[in-house]
Specification:
- This protein has 9 helices and 11 strands.
- With 234 residues, the chain is α/β, with parallel strands linked by helices.
- The N and C termini lie far apart (44 Å).
- α5 packs parallel to α9.
- The longest helix is centred in the middle third of the chain and has 14 residues.
- 37% of the residues are buried.
- It is globular and about 55 Å long.
- It is 34% helix and 17% strand.
């Protein structure tokens, strides 16, 4: 098969399982580091003509990361487009298996390891109220129905904006600091929060710096994410 991936997480999942299957990936597909597939633009602005020119048997996408007009253009070009939806860990496991099956691949060992790692977690401690910024200038945080929020909930972190009507609301900094949170979780993507860029905005909160790939990617990284996130949140 010839496969184009418009989702970094799914790119890694396919490439690790079957090296050489991918013929096109986005500019944001950074894993594995030895990818040689053609670059076809960003997740939000792929070059649909370039994708069609690669003559893929399958294009894999995601309803959050990719725009419907681009997916419609690919379908209009006669391409088979598989669109995933991933808002919980359980949904991620189901969708990963669906994608790999569509690519003609068997269930890989890393998927078994990931499921086992999350199933083996000890019971979550008493939930700590937290805010989870994903951008600054303006400040944006995790809201409702997010994959990252579900992972954190399994680790004893209660997102105080989980009931917000938006999935990634913009919230003024003074409101974030008055939210009642005790913890601020700062990933290094999509915005690259660091020890010197982020914690200073929340002087009264405990800050936990986490690997954004462990928090937001669904793929082979899930096998190590459970332990790594748990350690970072202690």
């Amino acid at each position: 098969m010839r496969v184009v991936s418009l989702v970094p997480s799914l790119t890694e999942a396919v490439a690790v399982t079957a090296p050489g299957l991918l013929v096109g990936v986005t500019d944001w597909c950074t894993r594995p580091t030895d990818l040689t597939a053609a670059r076809i633009g960003g997740t939000k602005n792929p070059d649909t003509a370039a994708v069609a020119a690669l003559r893929p048997d399958l294009v894999i996408a995601n309803e959050e990361e990719n725009r419907e007009p681009d997916l419609a253009a690919l379908r209009a070009a006669g391409l088979n487009v598989l669109v995933t939806e991933v808002r919980t860990l359980d949904q991620a496991f189901v969708e990963l298996e669906r994608v790999l099956t569509a690519c003609g691949l068997s269930r890989p060992p890393w998927l078994e390891e990931a499921e086992a790692a999350w199933a083996a977690l000890p019971p979550a401690p008493a939930p700590r109220p937290a805010i989870v910024p994903v951008w600054r200038k303006p400040w944006m945080v995790l809201g409702r129905d997010t994959f990252a929020g579900d992972l954190l909930a399994r680790l004893g972190v209660r997102n105080v904006y989980a009931g917000h009507p938006e999935r990634y609301p913009r919230v003024p900094l003074d409101e974030l600091n008055a939210s009642g949170a005790e913890l601020v979780v700062l990933p290094d993507e999509p915005y690259r929060f660091t020890a010197d860029d982020g914690p200073e905005a929340f002087p009264a909160l405990t800050a936990a710096l986490v690997d954004g790939r462990h928090l937001t990617w669904y793929g082979p990284s899930l096998a190590e994410a459970a332990g790594a996130l748990r350690a970072a949140l202690r």
